[in-house]
Fold this sequence. Notes:
By secondary structure, the chain is of the alpha/beta class. 30% of the residues lie in helices and 18% in strands.
Amino acid sequence: MKNFPTINIEELFPTDIINQRLILENFLGCYGNMSIEAVCKLCLIAKYIKPKKIFEIGTFNGLTTSQIALNTDALIYTLDLPMEEVSEAKLLKADLDLSLSRQETGICFKGNPKVTQLWGNSTKFDFSPYYSEIDLVFIDGGHDFETKKSDTENALKMIDKGVIVWDNYLDDTNPETTTYLNTLDLPIYHLRNTFLAIYIKK
């Protein structure tokens, strides 16, 4: 099965998207965080589409969340697995190791009134209150095939018109993300120099 095409961000959006000014603070991450280029491109997208509500699956330390919050006026909901449920969840070893080694969940945005921390296993979480309510979904939770499938199916229900962005596409350390996304019959694109894949629902 072929991979989705790789493009520059300005091929998908008007070219002035790359001329926007971004605010970044305390953006030097740790193992498990995205590259700075990926964070910037996600922030450029968020700033350009001016979402009212954003849903993130996979909080980790909240670095990505905090940068998005600096660059949009959106309300941000971010979901992560509580530590007490980590051992019970069916995680890939890499995801398990990352969950057990993480700093305090959401520490980078702690106290930010724009951000609401939600807790739960995304494969069991009730997303129905957010159906048709979200403008941008960012998926960076469990990287196994079934979790990515569940998260994507819920993301598609959360947006009527909007954007879904996935991390770890074409990432050899998380191959099941690529395997799953390549099964989808959707106009998805890979953003050059990142592991981000994007779908715009119009």
